[in-house]
Amino acid sequence: MTERDAKVVGVILAAGKGTRLMPFSARHPKPLLPVLDRPLIEHQLEALRALGVERVIVVIGHLGAEIVQHLGDGARLGVRVEYVEQEEMLGIAHALARVEPLVDRPMLVLLGDIFFVHDGLAEMLSMLDEGAAGVLAVKEEADPDAIRRNFVAIEDEGGRVARVIEKPRHPRGRLKGCGIYLFQPDFFDALRRTPRTAMRDEYELTDGIQIFIDDGYLVRAARVIKDDVNVSYPKDLLDLNLRLLGSEAKVAPSARIAEGASIVRSVVMHEAVIEHPIILRESLVFPGARVGGTLDVHRQIITREHVIDCA
């Protein structure tokens, strides 16, 4: 770890309600949703720790107490975790603005519902050393629909980000934003002047970034993301787990599986129970959930309270 890296603080925005993930987001905050055998937020903290980040501020809101209870002070995960609450759900820019009193150095910001595979986040820190005031992690994206669900970054001839457009209907370019940002503390000045949008009645982070650019700050795009998944719907969560599984199955040692049952390309978490000799295929069984039926299961997410069909 370099001295430079130790001076970067991590910020994870984990306050969202996860409305599109209902019904189980009523009990499970999105950052605690399972990716293989660990909550999504633990994968993010691991990426920050590997970069040398020692201190992480988590912005909580919906079911925030569950996140605090799970992460605690972060010592178990090798980082120091602090918490700030977003009392009103007024958008990502509003959530990030909550941490200003705690930040006096560059901040590496992650959206709490993003799983990503990167090709060296340290490149973002190098851009900061080279004079950038902001760095946006991006991916060259061939699918226009994927860009329409996120934002597009448009560079000028000198390689500076000149425009960022939230959820563009007609994308100009292929640099898709991936929910990972690095900002100098000066960015808070732009956030304070970010207007509330008429369409969603929220404060959009991309509007704040555009103000920052228009103020003359150097913002760069770092092509460091190899793959990313925004976990917005139950199907996204299942597909992410299946993608990471490959052709294997993952069954927790404490799970109880009926004799003769077959677990095919599925995740069965700790203390889950499969009661009958069924075939469980391409499914996700939450901790403590019981699969009590006698019919085979395919592409379902099963919690203690719900069965969500993702076919």
Structure description:
The protein has 311 residues and is of the alpha/beta class. It folds into 2 domains: 230 residues, Spore Coat Polysaccharide Biosynthesis Protein SpsA, Chain A, CATH 3.90.550.10; 74 residues, no CATH class. It contains 9 helices and 24 strands. A 7-stranded mixed beta sheet has the order 5-4-1-6-11-8-12. Helix 3 links the parallel strand 4 and strand 5. It is elongated.
Which sequence of strands runs across the widest sheet?
5-4-1-6-11-8-12
Largest sheet: 7 strands, mixed
What is the count of distinct domains?
2
Strand proportion: 25-35%
Poorly predicted runs of 5 or more residues: 1-5
Helix content: 10-25%
CATH class of the largest domain: Alpha Beta
CATH fold name of the largest domain: Spore Coat Polysaccharide Biosynthesis Protein SpsA, Chain A
Question: Could you say which structural class the secondary elements and strand pairing correspond to?
Answer: alpha/beta
Please count the helical segments: 9
Measured between the Cα atoms of the first and last residue, the distance is: 45 Å
| Overall form | elongated
Question: Radius of gyration in whole Å, from Cα?
Answer: 20 Å
CATH architecture of the largest domain: Alpha-Beta Complex
CATH homologous superfamily name of the largest domain? Spore Coat Polysaccharide Biosynthesis Protein SpsA, Chain A
